[in-house]
Amino acid sequence: MNDLWDSSDDISARREAEALIIDVDGFEGPLDLLLTLSRTQKVDLRRISVLQLAEQYLGFVEQARQLRIELAADYLVMAAWLAYLKSRLLLPPDPAEDGPSGEELAAHLAFQLERLQAMREAAARLMGRDQKGRDFFARGDPTPLAVSRKTVFDVSLLDLMRAYARLRTRDEFRPYAFDRTDIYPLEAALERLSRMVPGAADWTSLQAYLPEGWRGAPARKRSAVASTFAATLELAKQGQIELRQSDTFAPLHLRRRAGQ
Amino acid sequence: MSDPTRADDDTPLFPAPPMAEQERMVEAILFACADPLSAAQIAARLPHGCDVTEALGHLRSRYQGRGVNLVRVGDGYALRTAPDLGWLMQSERVETRKLSRAAIETLAIIAYHQPVTRAEIEEIRGVAVSRGTIDQLLELDWIRLGRRRMTPGRPVTFVVTPEFLDHFGLDSARDLPGLKELREAGLLDSRPAPGAIGPDEDDIDPEGANIAGQPELFED
Amino acid sequence: MSDPTRADDDTPLFPAPPMAEQERMVEAILFACADPLSAAQIAARLPHGCDVTEALGHLRSRYQGRGVNLVRVGDGYALRTAPDLGWLMQSERVETRKLSRAAIETLAIIAYHQPVTRAEIEEIRGVAVSRGTIDQLLELDWIRLGRRRMTPGRPVTFVVTPEFLDHFGLDSARDLPGLKELREAGLLDSRPAPGAIGPDEDDIDPEGANIAGQPELFED
C-alpha cells in the first residue's frame, strides 16, 4: 500500500519537475521557484533541508541548461549563491574566514521562504474575504451631497460709515471757487466798472468804485479791491481809462481817458 | 390566477426561506439597487416561494418613522431618506466676496437718509444708481421698499431692513454715527472747507428725524 | 478635552434633538452616502450637541442581523448589505479587473508590513516589483504613499488606504486575517540577511508599531 502511494508520489514529483522546466516563465523569480521546489520535500518549511533544496535547485538549473532553456540572470545568481551555500554547509567551517556561517545563511533562506509562503497565504486569505461589490454592497443610489453656494459679503459697519463719510465730504475736496461766498469775481468787477467809466471824468479813488456790501468785512473787501483793481488794469490796457498813483502804496485814482 | 409577485410555489423544490429572512433579502436588494424595483423584479431575484408583497409590507412598517423609508415610486419600490431629513444632505459652501463700492455707498445713503428715493441717492452720490446695485441690496435683504413719496410721480423710497441692522450689529438705524462723530473718530480725513458753516449737524439731524418718524422701517 | 464626535455643547443655543431623532439623522446620512463617514464628518452635518457615538451605537444594534448592516471601516462608518446576501445582488456586481498574482502578493505585503518600501517588497518576494503592479494598486485606491523613510535616499513607503479596508470589509488594518499569528511567528520582522549591512534595522519600527502605530493610515 505504502509502496503504491510512494511510487505514485514519485510520478507526480517527476511530473512536477517536468512542469517546472516547461513553466519556468511562470515563476515569480528564484525565490518562488525555491518555494515550489521545497514543496517536494513534503515537510514543514521550518524543517526543510536547505542543503537538499540547494541541490534540487542546482539540479533544476542543470536540467534547464541541458534542455537549452535560457534562464534569467537572477536564477543564475541564485544558483551561484546556492552552490556557495552548499559548500559552506558541507565543508568544515574555515576559522580564518569571516562572515556568517553556512547554518546562518541557510536559516535566513528558510526564513525568507517561510515569509514568502506566509505572505502568499495571507494574500489568499485576503482575497478570500467578502469583497465590496461582490459579496457586500454599498448603497446603490447614493444621494450626492447637495452643495448650495452662499455668498457672504464682507462689509462692515466701518466700511459703510467710511463710504458715507466719503460721499458727504466729497464737495470739500472740490476746488470750485463759486462755492465760496466771499469772492467778488473779476467778471463782475469788469462789468460794473465798464458801466461806470463814462461818468468818471475826474480823478476818483478806486475805493469809490467798490460795490455795495463789499466795503466792510475785510475778507470781502480784499476780494472786491483785488477784482476791481484787476478790472482797472484791463480797462487801462484797452485805453478806456487812465490810472494814477502819487506814491508807493498811495491810493489809486482813475478817470475816463480824455477824448473818449 | 397567477400572482407575479409570488414565485411559483406549485412544486417547490426547497421550502421558501422564513419571512424574516425574506424581509432581509428584500431590504438588501432595495438598498443595493440604484433604481426602484417592481415587486416582480424583486421576486425574480428571490428564491422560489417567497412572498414579496408580505416582505415589503413588513419592511415598510419596519422603516416607518425611521431616517430611511420604504416608498413606492411608480410601480416600483425604493428605500429613500425620510423627506424631513433632506436638509442633512445639503451642505453650504460659503463664499466671501467684497461688496462693490457703488453698493456700499448706496447702502450707506439709504441707511443714513431713509426713506430715500432713487433720485435722492443719485443726487448724493452724484452718479446714477444702477438697477443691479439696488437689486443686489434687495436680494441681500438689507434694503426694502418703503412708502411712496407723496410728491409728483409718487416715487418709491428705500429703507433698511432688520436684517441689515442684524448684519451690522445695530440696534436701530438711529445708532449710525453722525458726520461729526465720524470726523472725531478719524474716519474723515478732510477738514471742513474754510468759511463753511458746519453743515454736519444740519445735514444729519433731519435724517435722525426721518428715522424717528419712520414707523414703517420696522413694521412686519 | 474635546471630543470631535460631539458637537460642542458648552453653551448650546438649542437643545440637541432627542436621541431617537439623532439616530434617524445618522441613519439618513449613512444611507445617502456610499463611502464611509467618520464620526466627525457625521457630527459636522448634525445639529450642535448631538452625540454621534451613542447614535451610532444604537444604529448598529438596530441593524444587527438585518439585510443591511452598520459596519466600521477604519475610523469611518458605513451601511453595507449583509455579506451572506451577496448572491442576491448579481446584477449590482462590479467586475473588477483580475489582479495578477504579483499584484495580490504585493498588496498583501503592503497590508501586513506597512509602511513598507519597494525594496522591502522586492526582498520579500525575491523579485523586482514592476511599476505596473504598484500603479494598478494605486489606481484601485487600495494603497497610497506613506511617509518617506528616514534612511539614505529617503525612499517612499506604501500603506493601505481606507478604501482598501472598505473593500475587504475590515474594521482596521489591525484586523487583517492572521496578523497576530504572523507577528508572533516573527514573519513580519524585518530580518536582514546575515552578513549584510543592515541599514533597515534601525529605521523599521518594530512591526507591531508599524500597524498599530501607523497614524498616517487613518489620518484625515
Structure described in brief:
The complex is a heterotrimer, with one copy of chain A (260 residues) and two copies of chain B (220 residues). With 260 residues, chain A is mainly alpha-helical. Chain A contains nine helices and four strands; from the N terminus they run αααααβαααβαββ.
Describe this structure in words.
The complex is a heterotrimer, with one copy of chain A (260 residues) and two copies of chain B (220 residues). By secondary structure, chain A is mainly α. Chain A has nine helices and four strands, in the order H-H-H-H-H-E-H-H-H-E-H-E-E. Chain A has a three-stranded antiparallel β-sheet with strand order 2-4-3, with helices on one face. In chain A, helix 2 crosses helix 3 (50-66) and helix 4 packs across helix 5 (102-127). Chain A is rod-shaped and about 155 Å long. In chain B, a hairpin with a 2-residue loop joins strand 2 and strand 3. With 220 residues, chain B is α+β, with helices and mostly antiparallel strands. Helix content of chain B is 40%, strand content 14%. Chain B has two domains: 19-91, Winged helix-like DNA-binding domain superfamily/Winged helix DNA-binding domain (Arc Repressor Mutant, subunit A), CATH 1.10.10.10; 101-213, Arc Repressor Mutant, subunit A. The A-C interface holds A 28-32, 34, 74, 99-100, 104-105, 107-108, 111-112, 114-116, 118-123, 125-127, 129-140, 142-143, 145 and C 31-35, 78-83, 86, 89, 92-94, 96, 99, 101-102, 104-105, 107-109, 111-112, 124-128, 166-170, 176-178, 182, 185, 187, 191, 193-195. Strand 1 (146-153) of chain A pairs parallel with strand 4 of chain B.
